[in-house]
Amino acid sequence: xxxxxxxxxxxxxxxxxxxxxxxxxxxxxxxxxxxxxxxxxxxxxxxxxxxxxxxxxxxxxxxxxxxxxxxxxxxxxxxxxxxxxxxxxxxxxxxxxxxxxxxxxxxxxxxxxxxxxxxxxxxxxxxxxxxxxxxxxxxxxxxxxxxxxxxxxxxxxxxxxxxxxxxxxxxxxxxxxxxxxxxxxxxxxxxxxxxxxxxxxxxxxxxxxxxxxxxxxxxxxxxxxxxxxxxxxxxxxxxxxxxxxxxxxxxxxxxxxxxxxxxxxxxxxxxxxxxxxxxxxxxxxxxxxxxxxxxxxxxxxxxxxxxxxxxxxxxxxxxxxxxxxxxxxxxxxxxxxxxx
Length: 340
Known about the structure:
The structure is a single chain. This protein is of the alpha+beta class. It folds into two domains: about 5-185 and about 330-340, 2-Layer Sandwich (Ribosomal Protein S5, domain 2), CATH 3.30.230.120; about 190-325, GHMP kinase, C-terminal domain (Alpha-Beta Plaits, 2-Layer Sandwich), CATH 3.30.70.890. It is about 40% helix and about 25% strand. It has eleven helices and twelve strands. The radius of gyration is 20 Å and the shape is globular. The N and C termini lie close together (about 5 Å).
């Protein structure tokens, strides 16, 4: 028997950062995001030997360790975290051992929620194997707890819910880790127009957002008026962009995206840098309207809004930079698992 799963990566369109504690606990957060056809993947194969074989291509780890009565440490942090929680919450595994393979369509630190999506993907695979009836909310909540609480990895709450639900979602983050996911019914022509009007550019440099997120959290805790007011505007931008998206108003969508980026840069020094600014300068000179970095900032993927008529001109201009434009489409499919 073979068990497989996949979960989609996401673009953080607006409101990112307002889902991070303590801001979301004090003021509540709003995020608008959408999943795309880049994914995380997981395969589990039961073994009759008490061993854990790991091939975590996304983390560059290939190893084999004994698997006794309790969870073992393979060095693959996300796999080990899910395994410990699954055994603790749902009991013994169905076989003495197993092999697990994971990989991602985008590199870690890309700003597309790769780590959180991988946790959802691994957890979904275990749930399929063990017959654990996890709904979308339960899957996302458990993945969030594994990553943020069990493993202590810094970040927000939106990524796990985006990967579990899929599609365009307006999310509300309330105190006590309460999350409300509002799926949006975006008309097909609007999705097509947005795909024609958006370029996804990989800067060529991954970033790890823990330090950036820590700066944002400290700014909120210290009551920095500049940072908190900027985050209030970022939170409002998710509401405003939701309306523009549902109406197919690409002009307002692009304006909100750019304004939110300007506010985002006020949250921490490392959110932008000369490399990112150069990419923006080249894109704007070629005809791009606005843009922002997806995720915490500092590198990874940039979203650029362009008039479809100028799409090729912007793409050609970006070829002078070390990064690359990555084709993508939006997808409405969330995490899925199956057996062979």
